[in-house]
Amino acid sequence: MRIDVITLFPGMFTGPLTESILQRAQAEHLLEVHTHDLRTFGHGSYRQVDDRPYGGGAGMLFMVEPVVRAIEFVTEEGEKAGCSSSHRVLFTPRGKRLTQTRVERIAKQHQWIILLCAHYEGVDQRVVDGGWIDEEVSIGDYVLTGGELPAMVLIDAVARQIPGVLGKDESAEEESFSKATNRKREYPHYTRPEEFRGLKVPDVLLSGHHAEIEKWRAKKLL
Ligand code: ADE
Can you tell me the distance from the alpha carbon of 28 to that of 51, in angstroms, rounded to the nearest whole number? Predict the structure, then answer.
């Protein structure tokens, strides 16, 4: 899977992409992430990318032209590298909620994703109205300083759905919000020791009775 990220802060992605499972997925060529500095597409010597909203009000908006030029550049680059039909996502609190179902759908249906991280008050609506965005996504009903953290959340959640990214001890099949758990929150887990400061592991988990364990786990789904 190829993911292109358009952002004013490419440096923010270094940490999450160079550690743990996301680092391994890239090293194994299961995931390819390219970050692009929106500033490169800005106007004039100051490389301006934002302006005040028509009608007044607080905050600044990304201007339509630099954003569209960035999307077009990134699209051309990806196509030159052999990719086709990107799925373009804009992060905004107005977007549809990112759920596990949406994550699975994105991972299954798309081999190439372009993520646009808005900042300040958002982007000129014509980026959406003009057809340069396929899906607007929110990661929850709270406001962040920009779309970078939501983009990292989506990259992480989608990447672990790519076959081969998780080891066999890290299966994405039976976990919270998966089909296998009826989209519910997973049952609690315990590991050694059997007792810690008087807190015991439930007997059923030590019993070796597989059917009983399954029954207990099903009861503990939230
Ligand atoms: N940008 C700011 N807040 C956001 C949120 N909750 N989800 C997606 N993008 C955002």
Answer: 41
**Residue 221 to residue 174: CA distance in whole angstroms:** 12
Residue 120 has pLDDT above 70, yes or no: no
Which two tokens mark 153? Answer: 């959340």
* CA 130 to ligand 1 center in whole angstroms: 21
Residue closest via CA to ligand 1's atom 4 equals 93
Q: Which domains, ranges and CATH numbers included, belong to the chain?
A: 2-159 (3.40.1280.10), 187-220 (1.10.1270.20)
169, pLDDT greater than 90: no
Of all protein residues, whose CA lies closest to atom 8 belonging to ligand 1?
A: 138
For the stretch 62-110, pLDDT in tens is 999 999 999 999 999 999 999 999 999 999 999 999 999 999 999 999 9
